[in-house]
Amino acid sequence: MSVFSRLPAAIPAALLCLAGPMTPLPADAQNTQFTPQYCDAYARDRANRKSGGVVGGAVAGATAGTAIGHIADGKLSSRQKGATIGAVVGGTAGAVNRNNLYNKYYHGCLSGVIYK
């Protein structure tokens, strides 16, 4: 005779409820492990597509710097200085952004998570 045959039906039902939901893994999480070479290629591709990189950051920074230089003084030299500083700062920020995205995608891939 089984132990469960002597228990009221509510106890096994309660045990099943306490075990938690039996749902499949989300579509983004996979149980497979990817190779580091695959993850490197995947992360580089995603980071390149999602980030403007150095050039995109430099263009945006130069544009903003030119506008700030024009508002501050209005002289050509002020606009040129603003554009130069903006390009350097924007380019650096774009490179950092791309590197952060690469690290996110690479380590996620190694953990088995593929971002869409």
TrEMBL record:
Q: Does the keyword Signal apply?
A: yes
Superkingdom, natural source:
Bacteria
Keyword annotations for this protein? Signal
Domain YMGG-like Gly-zipper as annotated: residue spans: 53-96
InterPro entries this protein is in? Gly-zipper_YMGG
Q: A Pfam family this protein belongs to? A: Gly-zipper_YMGG
Q: What is this protein called?
A: YMGG-like Gly-zipper domain-containing protein
Task: Report the source organism.
Answer: Aliiruegeria lutimaris
Q: What is the lineage of its organism?
A: Bacteria, Pseudomonadati, Pseudomonadota, Alphaproteobacteria, Rhodobacterales
